[in-house]
């Protein structure tokens, strides 16, 4: 490898890095075949470098599509040196694929927008693209297109596409009174990692294992694709959303979209060891960390009470509450009191220089 | 209207501006019905604010999807005051829909990423979103989702989705020797406007009408959706690409993807009056402006010679050259000589601070 840093132009990076990392996509694409009869094939991917990527969809499909921007240098843990360029590329894909998972869909492709500053070498640019590629592989899809080029700083944004059999997508709006509220895995680790690393007190040393587990939520976030598909296939899930805006915001969003209320049971809410450890060190309410603006990619979903046992035989999850007819999302505490949910509401203020309010 | 500037947070802008501008999308969506039997309906759009937008696709479709980032403050004419926030939103959509048009597809939706600086008021943010909305309406689709929030400067990126009957999408790779090379409308006006306005010489005053025409290419760019659909429906077009990287780059891309060469006839290349006027003022080669890195959204396409007359009865276009078997894209000059194409190659250097080369 050259020791001299290389700064190629956009056509060169397209012709070299992009084609090398994302080559022969039609051959690589795992064709979708539903038992119901639908099929999805890739006709032209990133390597075709046409105006657009092309999929062929035959039969009845729900096509789901969402876009998420990821802060570049605003991405605090990257600025602080805890994440590298590969991690950012990986994260970009996980964040976008998580929205596909939350619809119960199978991801088929990602389009990534990667704009880089003048001082980003070809090697670092390639690390971003490799992270994007590897995360796509991890989640069973391909980076089929996007846009690269210069900018005055690193800018990362993406769009993910998914499909499921027609009528199968899981919306937020179907929760019914009496449904059980469930969570795929505990939340709060991403928020705890951020709180711990930003506190930056030299005497605040928590267990290395906890720190590694927490950082993994940022370095290799796990979009719940398998779980989302299983929830969709079960046919008994009435609503679903990912927790990328925090557990509290997710519960409030499902309740609002469904026109219902939710009571969360404090005793049923899982608190990861790492969250408990950080909360103790920093004198935080662990429930606030679990509920607050931690960017985890778990799924919250609702199931009719009669169906929840059957679903639990096929999938691991936590039952954290119940859907009520009357509005409001509240916490039933262990001491018998009922309170508002703890945790910061979703405002993205911590990373958002646009957080001024009128 | 309040005279005090208002800076709402992200949830407020979602609940107010986004829902107001993009409300009731399922009712607004124009369902797609192909004579061949395919159908596309919108199930959940931007107003649903679910994890993803959802389309239902029944029958056989080619789904085409592409992403384009638009420079914010790097967007020179905006920095210079010639474009406002509404214009940027409009441009963002046109640039993205142009890629759908170039595939011969019908646009069904756009996802827009709009991240704004702390000093962008609700009113200016709304202007961006209104431009996005109006451009979508102009091109027959909806802004079905995306991502908004803060950033340290204005960042605009989008993804456009389109469909056509299965097997109908127009790729770059089908041009055959003997095909006629065609262009929907003249290129160069966007580049001429940029060159003129950046030259900024007070004594360089060209005709107001020319300036308005040229600026319209930036303020209300026209994605060739109608033309793209007509080319697809004709069944005789062998390749197609938009000219957003410049006419020269487009011709070279089609030639390369198709494994052919192209000879452009100088006498057949249309030169708009505005381009001629600016070229004279600034002592530029008008052919260089027409061929170079002007960001126009015209379509270049190829048609078998036997079919071109029939197509011309249904659609207006310019025949500018011919496809050859041997490689190379050249210009046959009026004086009988054959030269390389004039005009800067595609490097995005003029707007690209990342333009350092090894």
UniProtKB/TrEMBL annotation, chains A, B:
Its catalytic activity? thiamine phosphate + ATP = thiamine diphosphate + ADP
Q: Show where the PurM-like C-terminal domain sits.
A: 176-329
Please give the pathway this protein is involved in: Cofactor biosynthesis; thiamine diphosphate biosynthesis; thiamine diphosphate from thiamine phosphate: step 1/1
Does the record carry Transmembrane helix as a key word? no
Residues annotated to bind Mg(2+) 3 = 51, 99, 242
Query: What is the purpose of this protein?
Result: Catalyzes the ATP-dependent phosphorylation of thiamine-monophosphate (TMP) to form thiamine-pyrophosphate (TPP), the active form of vitamin B1.
Q: What is this protein called?
A: Thiamine-monophosphate kinase
* Originating species: Saccharothrix carnea
């Amino acid at each position: 490898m050259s020791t001299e840093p290389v700064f190629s132009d956009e056509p060169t990076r397209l012709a070299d890095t992009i084609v090398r990392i994302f080559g022969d996509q039609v051959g690589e694409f795992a064709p979708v075949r539903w038992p119901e009869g639908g099929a999805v094939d890739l006709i032209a991917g990133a390597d075709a470098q046409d105006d657009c990527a092309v999929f062929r969809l035959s039969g009845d499909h729900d096509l789901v599509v969402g876009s998420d921007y990821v802060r570049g240098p605003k991405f605090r843990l990257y600025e602080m040196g805890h994440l590298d360029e590969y991690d950012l590329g990986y994260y970009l894909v996980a964040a976008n694929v998580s929205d596909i998972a939350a619809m119960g869909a199978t991801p088929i492709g990602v389009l990534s927008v990667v704009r880089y500053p003048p001082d980003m070498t070809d090697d670092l640019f390639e690390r971003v693209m490799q992270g994007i590629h590897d995360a796509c592989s991890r989640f069973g899809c391909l980076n089929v297109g996007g846009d690269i080029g210069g900018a005055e700083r690193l800018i990362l944004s993406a769009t993910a596409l998914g499909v499921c059999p027609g009528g199968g997508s899981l919306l937020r709006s179907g929760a019914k009174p009496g449904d059980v509220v469930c969570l795929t895995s505990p939340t709060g680790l991403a928020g705890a990692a951020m709180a711990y690393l930003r506190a930056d007190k030299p005497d605040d040393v928590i267990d290395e294992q906890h720190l590694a587990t927490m950082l993994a939520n940022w370095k290799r976030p796990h979009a719940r694709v398998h779980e989302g598909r299983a929830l969709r296939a079960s046919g008994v899930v009435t609503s679903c959303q990912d927790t990328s805006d925090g557990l509290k915001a997710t519960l409030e969003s499902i309740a609002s979209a469904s026109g219902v209320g939710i009571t969360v049971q404090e005793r049923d809410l899982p608190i990861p060891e790492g969250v408990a450890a950080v909360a103790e060190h920093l004198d935080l309410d662990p429930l606030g960390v679990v509920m607050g603006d931690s960017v985890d990619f778990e799924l919250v979903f609702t199931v009719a009470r009669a169906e929840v046992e059957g679903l639990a035989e096929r999938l691991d999850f936590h039952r954290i509450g119940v859907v009520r007819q009357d509005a409001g999302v509240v916490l039933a505490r262990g001491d018998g009191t009922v309170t508002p949910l703890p945790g910061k509401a979703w405002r993205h203020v911590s990373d958002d220089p646009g957080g001024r309010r009128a």
